Amino acid sequence: MLVKVLFFGRLKEIVGVAEDSAEVAAGARVADVFAHYGSRFPELEKFRASVAAAVNQQYSEWSAPVASGDEVAFLPPVSGGQGTGAEISAPRDTCEIVHSPIRTAELVQQLKTPADGALVVFEGIVRNNSRGKETLYLIYEAYESMALGVMRDLCAEIRRRNSIDRILMQHRLGRLEIGETSILIAVSSAHRAAAFDACRFAIDTFKRTVPIWKQEFFRDGAVWAEGEGNPAKTFSP
């Protein structure tokens, strides 16, 4: 049977393609699909312990079966435009992947309402150094459709944990220069404690779970930023 296979970040460089089709035996599991490529690209096997898998845009166990026509993605640990458009997880939640500059002041102003006594904002900014070297610029890539789904799930988990009003999450893809905003997370609530707790949980969990990867460019080359563990381990306390 034929399955669609996607690779991201460092894995894409090893295999040489971002998307491929694989012919696997009936009854094959996710691990069998990975092994199909591992036998051809030995370096891929080195990443096996830290790679997460997704089937049809949902994180999946390696033992999960695959069916003909499934989309199987292999995801390295996540790094923690005209846009693809907003995805709404609840009436007051906005999740976006964009390719153009993030307009922080404008977006934050739109979140304020008379009922809220607090608005906490996290803005991730491209800095000019990493690994003891001068950073020239960054490039972000994502498994966009799945990233939006994970962001919506994260909003739901934030609401389960905290009494808040509005959530906004926006991440930019493509090339970002020094000083530009890569991610904006803003949370409003009636009281400051809930907003602070929710915003901190949001960015910490976003960096572990949302399938977005960062490539850092220096004068002597480029590297993929190391992630913070297996992204399939989601929303733990």
- The share of residues in extended strands comes to 35-45%
Structural category is: alpha+beta
Could you state the order of secondary-structure elements as H and E?
A: EHEHHEEEEEHEEEEHEEEHEE
Judging from the principal axes of the Cα atoms, what is the shape?
globular
Low-confidence stretches: 81-90
- Biggest sheet, open or closed, and with what strands and sense? 5 strands, mixed
The total of helices stands at 6
For the biggest β-sheet, the strand order reads 2-1-5-3-4
User: What helical percentage do the residues reach?
Assistant: 25-40%
Oligomer: single chain
Distance between the termini: 39 Å
Mean pLDDT: 90
Rounded Rg = 19 Å
In short:
The protein is built from 6 helices and 16 strands. The protein has 237 residues and is an alpha+beta fold.
Secondary-structure blueprint:
Blueprint: E1 2-7, H1 9-15, E2 19-23, H2 30-38, H3 42-45, E3 52-55, E4 58-60, E5 71-75, E6 86-90, E7 93-98, H4 104-111, E8 118-125, E9 129-130, E10 133-134, E11 137-142, H5 144-161, E12 166-172, E13 174-177, E14 181-189, H6 192-209, E15 212-218, E16 221-224
Parallel strand pairs: 1-5, 7-12
Antiparallel strand pairs: 1-2, 3-4, 3-5, 6-7, 8-14, 9-10, 11-13, 11-15, 12-14, 15-16
